[in-house]
Amino acid sequence: MKTKLVFTTLLAGALLGACATQPVTKEEPGLKDVLGDKFLIGTALNVWQVAGQDTAATAIVKKHFNAIVAENCMKCAEIHPTEDTYDFKDADAFVKFGEENGLTMTGHCLIWHSQLAPWFCVDEKGKNVSPEVLKQRMKDHIYTVVKRYKGKLKGWDVVNEAIMEDGSYRKSKFYQILGEEFIPLAFQYAHEADPDVELYYNDYNMHEAGKRETVVKLVKDLKARGLRIDAVGMQGHVGMDYPDMDEFEKSMVAYGNEGVKVMITEWDMSALPTVKRSANIADTVAFRKALNPYPDALPDSVSQVWNQRMGAFMDLFLKHADIMDRVTAWGVTDGDSWKNGFPVRGRKDYPLLFDREYQPKPFVTELIERLEKEKAENAAE
Length: 381
Ligand code: 9MR
Fold this sequence. Notes:
With 381 residues, the chain is an alpha/beta fold. The protein has one domain: Glycosidases (TIM Barrel, Alpha-Beta Barrel). It has helices at residues 2-21, 31-35, 47-50, 55-64, 76-79, 89-100, 131-148, 173-178, 182-193, 209-224, 245-257, 284-291, 300-319, 362-380, and strands spanning 40-45, 67-70, 104-112, 155-160, 198-203, 231-234, 237-238, 261-269, 324-329. Strands 1-2-3-4-5-6-8-9 form an eight-stranded parallel beta barrel, surrounded by five helices. α7 links the parallel β3 (104-112) and β4. α7 packs parallel to α9, α10 (209-224) runs parallel beside α11 (245-257) and α13 (300-319) runs parallel beside α14 (362-380). The N and C termini lie far apart (54 Å). The chain binds ligand 9MR.
């Protein structure tokens, strides 16, 4: 009996030893493994994730993504809070995280009317500064920030959200002071600061015909002036009932036709009904429930529609892989998303590729399986 036990133990040991050099289970591929030869697949990161305080999110980033963008810490109000102060702490940590993990990084964003440091466009009395002063401030800001990360980032969102859905220019302070000229100026300064870095125009609702037309015109104009523009970023904050997929595709093709790459830069899809303020607000309880219909979990029926539509968007990106350079989700898991606070504070949304338990959504798992299979079939041919 004793001899038999010793023999069994030895045999098991020998088998284990053999297994140690030949892993028996193959690790499941991540998104970047199946999409890497088509386009970059990225995510926005918040400061807690960069600081390593959310290790489960970090694990997802390492396994699934090959590109990152800073959700907030490179914006003007964060990085340049007063005229004489820059605060690079969080942005430096973001870049260090990207370098340590071999991730392609995008800077977001240089010139944007929102999250703009309050001093930027006004004097001490709160009056708009002159065009010359604003040009100098833009130049100082862009030069300082872009030069600091020279050689580390692949590209910058140079101007964010400057065009309205009807194709007119947003009447931001930049526009009020400098007119349309503020856009070419921003691209010029960014290129002067780092001639090797890619430069992007980034905006939401890019499927709208009016906006499409003006953005196409903008790209033509920048090119005609000999300025650099590498890609147009379509943010891709979509919903269950918008945008029309054909209009979205029309815009992708229209931008691609201008000889620039197309990127989906802030992808997410709210699973909640679009808010209509005209609802019967006399019934407050019912109204609140309508605004936040799934406080516990997303019902299966809704989840199915959501997954089907996200899958359809991904298929559209794959169809145009020749012009797509990157697809980036605006956050890692549902719990991180800005959508939980917008347009209604405190409601629970389900817009991202991973759920609150850090699990991939069904369309993500299906996509990985499908593309893995296609790869294997192609390799066998
Ligand atoms: O996700 C960002 C959120 O944490 C910030 O509070 C918000 C402030 O405006 O900005 C969010 O990110 C925006 C991005 O920078 C530009 N496009 C729209 C995004 C969602 O508002």
